[in-house]
């Protein structure tokens, strides 16, 4: 028990380091660095742009199918005259439409985040 007390007393008596003003003279190593895919060459840039576009188009198609499925479930609920199913289907369609809007506006959202952070 005395060893623990000794450690606690030593720790309590140790001076707390104070940060130096201005970051201690350490320079940001990434100051002035910007992302540039052009250094990998033109063919690579063209390829990754095409791949990203294909993935984006696939995402839009998948979400559009989910929106269509939501409208189908809404129509089924209306046909069955089930108000509870109808309210669930309506909220599902709203959520799916918001997801479709988010996927369509993905480049704008990413650009806004990069502009806000950068």
Structure description:
The two termini are 53 Å apart. The chain contains 4 helices and no strands. It is mainly α and 118 residues long. It has a domain at 42-118. The mean pLDDT is 84. Keywords: Membrane, Transmembrane, Transmembrane helix. The chain crosses the membrane at residues 53-74, 95-117.
Instruction: Say how many strands there are.
Output: 0
Radius of gyration, whole Å: 28 Å
Helix content: over 70%
Poorly predicted spans: none
The secondary-structure class comes to mainly alpha
* Distance between the ends: 53 Å
Shape: flat
**H and E order:** HHHH
Hey, roughly how much beta strand do the residues contain?
Answer: under 5%
Number of helices: 4
The largest β sheet comes out as: none
Average predicted confidence as pLDDT: 84
Give the structure's gist in a few sentences:
The chain has helices spanning 2-13, 42-80, 83-104, 106-117. The chain has 118 residues and is mainly alpha-helical.
Topology of this structure?
Blueprint: H1 2-13, H2 42-80, H3 83-104, H4 106-117
Keywords:
118 residues, mainly alpha, 4 helices, transmembrane, membrane
């Amino acid at each position: 028990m005395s060893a623990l007390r000794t450690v606690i007393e030593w720790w309590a008596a140790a001076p707390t380091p104070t940060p130096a003003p201005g970051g201690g003279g350490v320079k940001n190593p990434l100051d002035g660095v910007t992302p540039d895919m052009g250094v990998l060459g033109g063919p690579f840039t063209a390829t990754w742009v095409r791949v990203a576009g294909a993935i984006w188009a696939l995402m839009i198609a998948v979400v559009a199918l989910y929106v269509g499925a939501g409208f189908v479930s809404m129509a089924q609920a209306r046909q069955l005259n089930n108000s509870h199913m109808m309210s669930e289907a309506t909220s599902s369609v709203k959520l799916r439409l918001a997801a479709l809007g988010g996927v369509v506006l993905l480049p704008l959202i990413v650009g806004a985040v990069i502009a806000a952070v950068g």
